[in-house]
Design brief:
two-stranded antiparallel sheet, single chain, 399 residues, mainly alpha
Length: 399
Protein backbone atom coordinates (compact mmCIF):
# COMPACT_ATOMS: atom_id res chain seq x y z
CA UNK A 1 0.00 0.00 0.00
CA UNK A 2 2.86 2.34 0.85
CA UNK A 3 4.43 1.63 -2.54
CA UNK A 4 1.15 2.37 -4.28
CA UNK A 5 0.89 5.71 -2.45
CA UNK A 6 4.47 6.56 -3.41
CA UNK A 7 3.79 5.76 -7.08
CA UNK A 8 0.58 7.76 -6.98
CA UNK A 9 2.39 10.71 -5.41
CA UNK A 10 5.11 10.54 -8.06
CA UNK A 11 2.53 10.48 -10.87
CA UNK A 12 0.80 13.45 -9.28
CA UNK A 13 4.09 15.36 -9.16
CA UNK A 14 4.79 14.55 -12.81
CA UNK A 15 1.30 15.63 -13.86
CA UNK A 16 1.60 18.92 -12.01
CA UNK A 17 5.07 19.46 -13.45
CA UNK A 18 3.81 18.83 -16.97
CA UNK A 19 0.88 21.18 -16.39
CA UNK A 20 3.23 23.91 -15.13
CA UNK A 21 5.41 23.63 -18.25
CA UNK A 22 2.81 23.09 -20.96
CA UNK A 23 -0.62 24.08 -19.66
CA UNK A 24 0.44 27.37 -18.12
CA UNK A 25 2.08 30.12 -20.15
CA UNK A 26 5.66 30.92 -19.22
CA UNK A 27 6.48 34.41 -17.93
CA UNK A 28 7.10 36.79 -20.81
CA UNK A 29 10.32 38.10 -19.23
CA UNK A 30 11.61 34.52 -19.19
CA UNK A 31 10.78 34.26 -22.88
CA UNK A 32 12.85 37.38 -23.54
CA UNK A 33 15.84 35.98 -21.65
CA UNK A 34 15.62 32.56 -23.31
CA UNK A 35 15.16 34.13 -26.73
CA UNK A 36 18.28 36.25 -26.25
CA UNK A 37 20.38 33.32 -25.05
CA UNK A 38 19.18 31.05 -27.86
CA UNK A 39 19.87 33.80 -30.41
CA UNK A 40 23.48 34.06 -29.24
CA UNK A 41 23.89 30.28 -29.28
CA UNK A 42 22.49 30.14 -32.82
CA UNK A 43 24.91 32.84 -33.97
CA UNK A 44 27.83 31.15 -32.22
CA UNK A 45 26.96 27.87 -33.92
CA UNK A 46 26.59 29.20 -37.46
CA UNK A 47 24.53 32.33 -38.10
CA UNK A 48 21.89 34.57 -36.50
CA UNK A 49 18.29 33.44 -36.59
CA UNK A 50 15.84 35.12 -38.89
CA UNK A 51 12.49 34.64 -40.59
CA UNK A 52 12.36 36.62 -43.81
CA UNK A 53 15.24 34.75 -45.49
CA UNK A 54 13.39 31.47 -45.08
CA UNK A 55 10.13 32.94 -46.33
CA UNK A 56 11.88 34.40 -49.35
CA UNK A 57 13.35 30.98 -50.10
CA UNK A 58 9.85 29.48 -50.08
CA UNK A 59 8.54 32.28 -52.30
CA UNK A 60 11.46 31.84 -54.70
CA UNK A 61 10.62 28.16 -55.03
CA UNK A 62 6.98 28.94 -55.75
CA UNK A 63 7.84 31.37 -58.54
CA UNK A 64 10.42 28.96 -59.93
CA UNK A 65 7.77 26.25 -59.95
CA UNK A 66 5.30 28.32 -61.98
CA UNK A 67 7.98 29.46 -64.41
CA UNK A 68 8.44 33.10 -63.39
CA UNK A 69 11.98 32.61 -62.07
CA UNK A 70 14.52 30.80 -64.23
CA UNK A 71 17.11 30.04 -61.57
CA UNK A 72 16.34 27.56 -58.81
CA UNK A 73 17.12 28.74 -55.27
CA UNK A 74 18.77 26.57 -52.63
CA UNK A 75 16.67 23.65 -51.46
CA UNK A 76 14.39 24.57 -48.52
CA UNK A 77 15.89 21.55 -46.73
CA UNK A 78 19.45 22.79 -47.26
CA UNK A 79 19.09 26.57 -47.00
CA UNK A 80 19.93 27.64 -43.45
CA UNK A 81 17.41 30.49 -43.73
CA UNK A 82 14.65 28.05 -44.59
CA UNK A 83 15.65 25.47 -41.99
CA UNK A 84 15.49 27.98 -39.14
CA UNK A 85 12.06 29.17 -40.28
CA UNK A 86 10.83 25.59 -40.75
CA UNK A 87 12.21 24.72 -37.32
CA UNK A 88 10.38 27.66 -35.73
CA UNK A 89 7.14 26.61 -37.39
CA UNK A 90 7.64 22.97 -36.34
CA UNK A 91 8.62 23.93 -32.79
CA UNK A 92 5.51 26.05 -32.30
CA UNK A 93 3.38 23.25 -33.79
CA UNK A 94 4.89 20.69 -31.40
CA UNK A 95 4.55 23.05 -28.43
CA UNK A 96 0.91 23.77 -29.29
CA UNK A 97 0.19 20.03 -29.39
CA UNK A 98 1.96 19.44 -26.08
CA UNK A 99 -0.08 22.27 -24.58
CA UNK A 100 -3.38 21.11 -26.10
CA UNK A 101 -3.57 24.47 -27.88
CA UNK A 102 -3.47 23.32 -31.49
CA UNK A 103 -6.63 23.59 -33.57
CA UNK A 104 -7.54 24.83 -37.01
CA UNK A 105 -9.05 28.26 -36.37
CA UNK A 106 -11.04 29.91 -39.14
CA UNK A 107 -11.62 33.64 -39.05
CA UNK A 108 -14.39 35.68 -40.72
CA UNK A 109 -13.72 36.55 -44.39
CA UNK A 110 -12.74 40.15 -43.65
CA UNK A 111 -10.19 38.98 -41.08
CA UNK A 112 -8.75 36.55 -43.62
CA UNK A 113 -8.45 39.45 -46.07
CA UNK A 114 -6.59 41.43 -43.41
CA UNK A 115 -4.20 38.52 -42.99
CA UNK A 116 -3.47 38.64 -46.73
CA UNK A 117 -3.06 42.43 -46.81
CA UNK A 118 -0.94 42.39 -43.65
CA UNK A 119 1.28 39.69 -45.12
CA UNK A 120 1.77 41.70 -48.32
CA UNK A 121 2.68 44.84 -46.38
CA UNK A 122 5.11 42.93 -44.17
CA UNK A 123 6.73 41.48 -47.30
CA UNK A 124 7.21 44.94 -48.78
CA UNK A 125 8.55 46.38 -45.53
CA UNK A 126 10.92 43.49 -44.88
CA UNK A 127 12.34 43.71 -48.41
CA UNK A 128 13.04 47.42 -47.94
CA UNK A 129 14.49 47.10 -44.42
CA UNK A 130 16.67 44.10 -45.16
CA UNK A 131 14.71 41.91 -42.77
CA UNK A 132 11.52 41.60 -40.74
CA UNK A 133 11.14 42.34 -37.04
CA UNK A 134 13.90 39.78 -36.47
CA UNK A 135 16.53 40.38 -39.15
CA UNK A 136 15.83 44.06 -39.72
CA UNK A 137 15.37 45.00 -36.07
CA UNK A 138 16.15 42.38 -33.42
CA UNK A 139 19.23 40.74 -34.92
CA UNK A 140 20.28 43.96 -36.68
CA UNK A 141 20.56 45.74 -33.33
CA UNK A 142 22.38 42.72 -31.95
CA UNK A 143 24.76 42.94 -34.92
CA UNK A 144 25.46 46.60 -33.99
CA UNK A 145 23.83 47.91 -37.16
CA UNK A 146 22.51 51.47 -37.28
CA UNK A 147 19.69 50.41 -39.61
CA UNK A 148 18.22 48.47 -36.67
CA UNK A 149 17.57 51.80 -34.93
CA UNK A 150 15.94 53.18 -38.09
CA UNK A 151 13.63 50.17 -38.30
CA UNK A 152 12.82 50.41 -34.60
CA UNK A 153 11.60 53.98 -35.11
CA UNK A 154 9.68 52.85 -38.18
CA UNK A 155 8.05 49.96 -36.32
CA UNK A 156 6.85 52.30 -33.57
CA UNK A 157 5.38 54.68 -36.15
CA UNK A 158 3.84 51.85 -38.18
CA UNK A 159 2.27 50.22 -35.11
CA UNK A 160 0.75 53.56 -34.11
CA UNK A 161 -0.74 54.06 -37.58
CA UNK A 162 -1.94 50.45 -37.65
CA UNK A 163 -3.72 50.88 -34.33
CA UNK A 164 -5.36 54.08 -35.58
CA UNK A 165 -6.66 52.13 -38.57
CA UNK A 166 -7.96 49.30 -36.37
CA UNK A 167 -9.89 51.81 -34.25
CA UNK A 168 -11.29 53.43 -37.40
CA UNK A 169 -12.28 49.99 -38.69
CA UNK A 170 -14.13 49.12 -35.49
CA UNK A 171 -16.14 52.35 -35.75
CA UNK A 172 -16.88 52.35 -39.47
CA UNK A 173 -16.73 48.78 -40.83
CA UNK A 174 -19.03 46.00 -39.65
CA UNK A 175 -17.04 42.78 -39.96
CA UNK A 176 -18.75 40.56 -37.42
CA UNK A 177 -15.53 40.30 -35.43
CA UNK A 178 -13.16 42.63 -33.64
CA UNK A 179 -10.28 43.58 -35.89
CA UNK A 180 -6.58 43.43 -35.24
CA UNK A 181 -6.45 40.82 -32.51
CA UNK A 182 -4.25 37.77 -32.82
CA UNK A 183 -6.86 35.36 -31.51
CA UNK A 184 -9.96 36.83 -33.07
CA UNK A 185 -12.58 34.76 -34.81
CA UNK A 186 -13.11 31.13 -35.40
CA UNK A 187 -14.29 28.11 -33.45
CA UNK A 188 -12.20 25.01 -33.11
CA UNK A 189 -12.83 22.84 -36.14
CA UNK A 190 -10.61 20.00 -35.01
CA UNK A 191 -10.55 18.70 -31.45
CA UNK A 192 -7.93 16.09 -30.69
CA UNK A 193 -7.21 17.18 -27.15
CA UNK A 194 -6.88 13.68 -25.74
CA UNK A 195 -4.02 12.71 -28.07
CA UNK A 196 -2.42 16.08 -28.81
CA UNK A 197 0.32 15.72 -26.15
CA UNK A 198 1.36 12.37 -27.61
CA UNK A 199 1.45 13.84 -31.10
CA UNK A 200 3.52 16.72 -29.74
CA UNK A 201 6.00 14.30 -28.19
CA UNK A 202 6.27 12.52 -31.55
CA UNK A 203 6.91 15.89 -33.23
CA UNK A 204 9.80 16.60 -30.84
CA UNK A 205 11.23 13.12 -31.42
CA UNK A 206 10.92 13.70 -35.18
CA UNK A 207 12.91 16.94 -34.86
CA UNK A 208 15.68 15.14 -32.97
CA UNK A 209 15.72 12.32 -35.52
CA UNK A 210 15.89 14.92 -38.31
CA UNK A 211 18.99 16.45 -36.71
CA UNK A 212 20.60 13.03 -36.28
CA UNK A 213 19.91 12.10 -39.92
CA UNK A 214 21.38 15.39 -41.11
CA UNK A 215 24.46 14.82 -38.98
CA UNK A 216 24.83 11.38 -40.52
CA UNK A 217 24.68 13.06 -43.95
CA UNK A 218 27.53 15.46 -43.04
CA UNK A 219 24.98 18.26 -42.62
CA UNK A 220 25.43 18.77 -38.90
CA UNK A 221 25.44 22.56 -39.25
CA UNK A 222 22.08 22.57 -40.99
CA UNK A 223 20.51 19.98 -38.69
CA UNK A 224 21.46 21.82 -35.51
CA UNK A 225 20.22 25.12 -36.93
CA UNK A 226 16.85 23.50 -37.59
CA UNK A 227 16.83 22.25 -33.98
CA UNK A 228 17.65 25.79 -32.80
CA UNK A 229 14.63 26.95 -34.79
CA UNK A 230 12.49 24.33 -33.03
CA UNK A 231 13.71 25.67 -29.67
CA UNK A 232 12.89 29.23 -30.69
CA UNK A 233 9.41 28.17 -31.79
CA UNK A 234 8.72 26.45 -28.49
CA UNK A 235 9.99 29.41 -26.44
CA UNK A 236 7.92 31.92 -28.37
CA UNK A 237 4.79 29.78 -28.35
CA UNK A 238 4.93 29.00 -24.63
CA UNK A 239 5.50 32.66 -23.68
CA UNK A 240 3.12 34.07 -26.35
CA UNK A 241 5.93 36.48 -27.21
CA UNK A 242 5.02 38.55 -30.27
CA UNK A 243 6.75 41.76 -31.34
CA UNK A 244 3.39 43.24 -32.32
CA UNK A 245 2.53 43.63 -28.67
CA UNK A 246 5.85 45.31 -27.90
CA UNK A 247 5.02 48.14 -30.30
CA UNK A 248 1.19 48.16 -30.26
CA UNK A 249 0.28 47.61 -26.62
CA UNK A 250 1.88 50.81 -25.23
CA UNK A 251 -0.51 52.76 -27.52
CA UNK A 252 -3.49 50.43 -27.11
CA UNK A 253 -3.63 49.22 -23.51
CA UNK A 254 -0.56 50.83 -21.98
CA UNK A 255 0.87 47.41 -21.07
CA UNK A 256 4.66 47.27 -21.24
CA UNK A 257 5.40 43.67 -20.30
CA UNK A 258 6.35 42.57 -23.82
CA UNK A 259 8.27 45.79 -24.54
CA UNK A 260 10.38 45.16 -21.43
CA UNK A 261 10.96 41.52 -22.38
CA UNK A 262 12.06 42.45 -25.92
CA UNK A 263 14.39 45.13 -24.55
CA UNK A 264 16.05 42.66 -22.17
CA UNK A 265 16.29 40.08 -24.94
CA UNK A 266 18.01 42.44 -27.36
CA UNK A 267 20.46 43.61 -24.68
CA UNK A 268 21.51 39.98 -24.18
CA UNK A 269 21.80 39.59 -27.95
CA UNK A 270 23.92 42.74 -28.29
CA UNK A 271 26.38 41.57 -25.65
CA UNK A 272 26.65 38.09 -27.14
CA UNK A 273 26.90 39.19 -30.77
CA UNK A 274 29.44 41.90 -29.91
CA UNK A 275 31.65 39.36 -28.11
CA UNK A 276 31.55 37.01 -31.10
CA UNK A 277 32.35 39.79 -33.56
CA UNK A 278 34.98 41.54 -31.45
CA UNK A 279 36.90 38.30 -30.92
CA UNK A 280 36.80 37.56 -34.64
CA UNK A 281 34.73 34.40 -34.26
CA UNK A 282 32.12 35.88 -36.57
CA UNK A 283 32.43 38.36 -39.41
CA UNK A 284 31.68 41.92 -38.34
CA UNK A 285 29.30 42.68 -41.23
CA UNK A 286 27.04 39.65 -40.66
CA UNK A 287 23.41 40.81 -40.34
CA UNK A 288 24.24 44.44 -41.00
CA UNK A 289 21.47 45.29 -43.50
CA UNK A 290 22.03 47.68 -46.37
CA UNK A 291 19.09 49.76 -45.25
CA UNK A 292 20.22 52.88 -43.41
CA UNK A 293 18.35 55.02 -43.35
CA UNK A 294 15.53 55.15 -45.90
CA UNK A 295 14.91 51.43 -46.26
CA UNK A 296 15.01 50.78 -42.54
CA UNK A 297 12.72 53.67 -41.62
CA UNK A 298 10.10 53.42 -44.38
CA UNK A 299 10.30 49.62 -44.43
CA UNK A 300 9.75 49.64 -40.67
CA UNK A 301 6.68 51.85 -41.00
CA UNK A 302 5.15 49.63 -43.68
CA UNK A 303 6.05 46.45 -41.80
CA UNK A 304 4.76 47.84 -38.49
CA UNK A 305 1.43 48.78 -40.06
CA UNK A 306 1.16 45.38 -41.73
CA UNK A 307 1.92 43.37 -38.61
CA UNK A 308 -0.82 45.13 -36.65
CA UNK A 309 -3.31 44.51 -39.48
CA UNK A 310 -2.30 40.84 -39.75
CA UNK A 311 -2.18 40.32 -35.98
CA UNK A 312 1.34 38.89 -36.03
CA UNK A 313 4.89 39.92 -36.92
CA UNK A 314 7.26 37.72 -38.93
CA UNK A 315 8.04 35.32 -36.10
CA UNK A 316 4.61 35.81 -34.52
CA UNK A 317 2.81 34.90 -37.73
CA UNK A 318 4.87 31.71 -38.01
CA UNK A 319 4.20 30.46 -34.49
CA UNK A 320 0.52 31.31 -34.69
CA UNK A 321 0.33 29.51 -38.02
CA UNK A 322 1.90 26.57 -36.19
CA UNK A 323 -1.03 26.70 -33.75
CA UNK A 324 -3.46 26.35 -36.65
CA UNK A 325 -4.64 29.94 -37.19
CA UNK A 326 -5.68 30.18 -40.84
CA UNK A 327 -5.50 33.99 -40.91
CA UNK A 328 -1.81 33.85 -40.01
CA UNK A 329 -1.19 30.99 -42.45
CA UNK A 330 -2.41 33.34 -45.18
CA UNK A 331 -0.24 36.13 -43.78
CA UNK A 332 2.84 33.88 -43.94
CA UNK A 333 2.05 32.72 -47.49
CA UNK A 334 1.55 36.22 -48.89
CA UNK A 335 4.52 37.52 -46.88
CA UNK A 336 6.70 34.89 -48.57
CA UNK A 337 5.42 35.64 -52.07
CA UNK A 338 5.65 39.41 -51.67
CA UNK A 339 9.12 39.55 -50.14
CA UNK A 340 10.41 37.32 -52.94
CA UNK A 341 9.05 39.63 -55.66
CA UNK A 342 10.01 42.92 -54.00
CA UNK A 343 13.53 41.81 -53.07
CA UNK A 344 14.00 40.57 -56.63
CA UNK A 345 12.95 44.00 -57.93
CA UNK A 346 15.24 45.86 -55.53
CA UNK A 347 18.23 43.59 -56.23
CA UNK A 348 17.80 44.02 -59.98
CA UNK A 349 17.87 47.82 -59.81
CA UNK A 350 21.00 49.71 -58.76
CA UNK A 351 18.98 52.86 -58.13
CA UNK A 352 16.50 51.07 -55.84
CA UNK A 353 19.33 49.33 -54.00
CA UNK A 354 21.08 52.67 -53.46
CA UNK A 355 17.81 54.27 -52.35
CA UNK A 356 17.36 51.71 -49.57
CA UNK A 357 20.57 52.97 -47.96
CA UNK A 358 23.95 51.76 -46.80
CA UNK A 359 25.44 49.24 -44.43
CA UNK A 360 26.45 51.06 -41.25
CA UNK A 361 28.38 49.01 -38.69
CA UNK A 362 28.54 51.26 -35.64
CA UNK A 363 31.95 50.12 -34.30
CA UNK A 364 33.54 51.35 -37.54
CA UNK A 365 32.66 54.87 -36.40
CA UNK A 366 32.58 54.93 -32.60
CA UNK A 367 34.19 51.63 -31.58
CA UNK A 368 32.73 48.62 -29.84
CA UNK A 369 32.47 50.10 -26.37
CA UNK A 370 30.48 53.18 -27.34
CA UNK A 371 28.38 51.22 -29.83
CA UNK A 372 27.31 48.79 -27.11
CA UNK A 373 26.64 51.58 -24.63
CA UNK A 374 24.64 53.58 -27.19
CA UNK A 375 22.38 50.69 -28.22
CA UNK A 376 21.86 49.45 -24.67
CA UNK A 377 21.12 53.03 -23.61
CA UNK A 378 18.43 53.33 -26.31
CA UNK A 379 16.85 50.07 -25.16
CA UNK A 380 16.92 51.15 -21.52
CA UNK A 381 15.21 54.40 -22.47
CA UNK A 382 12.58 52.40 -24.37
CA UNK A 383 12.19 50.06 -21.37
CA UNK A 384 11.72 52.99 -18.97
CA UNK A 385 9.46 54.97 -21.32
CA UNK A 386 7.18 51.96 -21.82
CA UNK A 387 7.06 51.37 -18.04
CA UNK A 388 6.33 55.04 -17.36
CA UNK A 389 3.58 54.99 -19.98
CA UNK A 390 2.14 51.86 -18.34
CA UNK A 391 1.63 53.85 -15.14
CA UNK A 392 0.60 57.19 -16.68
CA UNK A 393 -1.11 56.02 -19.91
CA UNK A 394 0.41 59.10 -21.49
CA UNK A 395 0.80 57.63 -25.00
CA UNK A 396 -2.39 55.59 -25.10
CA UNK A 397 -4.57 56.20 -28.15
CA UNK A 398 -8.28 56.58 -27.44
CA UNK A 399 -10.82 55.04 -29.80
Amino acid sequence: MSQEREESAMMDILRRGYAAVFYENWPIWLGGVLLGITSVITFAWARPWGVVGGLRNWGDWFFKGIGIYSQAPASPFISTNSLIALGLLWGSFASALLSKQFSIRFSPPFELLKGIVGGILMGIGAAMAGGCNVGGFYSALGALSLSGIAMMIGLIMGAYLGLRYVYWEVEHISTGAAGGTADSGGKKAINLLSIEPYLGALAIIAAIVFTWVYSDMALTREGVLALCGVSLGMIIQRTRLCFVRAFRDPFMTGEAEVARAISISIIITILGFAALKWTGLRDEMVYVPQAFWFGGLLGGIIFGFGMVIAGGCGSGSLWRAGEGQVKLMLAVAFFALTVSLVEKAIDSSKSLTALMGHKVFLPDYIGYRWSILLLIGILIVYYLAATWNEKTEKFMVEM
